[in-house]
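Reagents: none. Just compute today. Protein stu1.
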Amino acid sequence: MWRGGGLGGERSRTRLKWNEGKRKEEVEEERGGGTNERTNERTNERTNERTNERTNERTNERTNERTNERTNERTNERTNERTNERTNERTNERTNERTNERTDGRTDGRTNERTNERTNERTNERTNERTPMTY
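Predicted 3D structure written out:
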């Protein structure tokens, strides 16, 4: 090791002498990894975390969009079914009303005819009873 001289120079000369003939990687392996390596690991971890967060956000957005689409489809189907049921009920009510009106008209006529026939028969019978028969 070198001794003497100024602060910065002494350290760098010492390091150079001590590391002589070795590659930077070999020296860092002997010392258990360099500062840069540890710093890079931490930086990479944070970068990866941020990247993963962004990726997850985008994935979640896409998943949510798909889920919402399916939910909306199901909701729309149910809404449409209910709307169709209500429309059909209203249509059926109107059809029934029209049918009933027509039927009532016909039934009333028929009922009245029958009632009139019976009334006329009774009236005729009474009239016949009172009127003597001529041969």
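The mean pLDDT is 75.
Action item: order primers for follow-up constructs.
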